[in-house]
Write a structure and sequence with these properties.
CATH architecture of the largest domain: Orthogonal Bundle
Shape: elongated
Distance between the termini: 52 Å
Structural class: alpha+beta
CATH topology of the largest domain: Topoisomerase I, Chain A, domain 4
Number of domains: 2
CATH class of the largest domain: Mainly Alpha
Oligomer: single chain
CATH superfamily of the largest domain: Ribosome-recycling factor
């Protein structure tokens, strides 16, 4: 494996980490209703853990309401249980066919809690990136030790690796700042 291949596989891993962080951020509630808040919930459907988006249609008729219409009406109880167990802090209501989630306005304290959670998630993403960097660096060290690459190539690879890490950390910080603005706007 060459330096270029190590850097390429490392960047692929970092892209996946960034996508994971984006997905986690989308699940944090802002002042508006969004299908992303609930579509990743796992429902116990006849003994199988199933994603909500795979068993119901999720819509947002207005900015403070999410409606969930399961294809199998008997799953409504399990959907409600999963929503209650989630970190959304919303009590669902249903009419026998549709589950409704009314999103109340966020209090200032709740917004601050969500911002702290956002910072924690972004830090976990940065830690993942640094772990990927460490593994790639070790791989470059091993290539040097096995005399597959020269010392100059290793140093160039490490420099390039740091540039890639910095780029992805900046992207995570940018996403965090955007989400923080969404949370804090009234």
């Amino acid at each position: 494996m060459t330096t270029k291949e190590v850097l390429h596989s490392t960047e692929d891993k970092m892209k996946k980490t960034l996508e994971s962080v984006k997905r986690e951020f989308s699940e944090i509630r802002t002042g508006r209703a969004s299908p992303h808040l609930v579509e990743g919930l796992h429902i116990d459907y006849y003994g199988t853990s199933t994603l909500l988006k795979q068993m119901a249609s999720i819509s947002v008729p207005d900015v403070h309401l999410i409606t969930i219409q399961p294809w199998d009406v008997s799953a409504i109880v399990e959907i409600e249980k999963a929503i209650m167990k989630s970190s959304l802090g919303i009590t669902p209501s249903n009419d026998g066919k549709i589950v409704r989630l009314s999103l109340p306005a966020l209090s200032k304290e709740r917004r601050q809690e969500l911002v702290k959670l956002l910072h924690k998630m972004s830090e976990e993403g940065r830690i993942s990136l640094r772990t990927i960097r460490r593994d790639a660096k070790e791989h470059l060290e091993k290539l040097l030790k096995d005399k597959i690459i020269s010392e100059d190539n290793k140093f160039r690879g490490v420099d390039e690796l740091q540039k890639i890490v910095d780029k992805y950390i900046a992207k995570i910080d940018e996403l965090r700042e955007e989400k923080e603005k969404e949370i804090l706007e009234f």
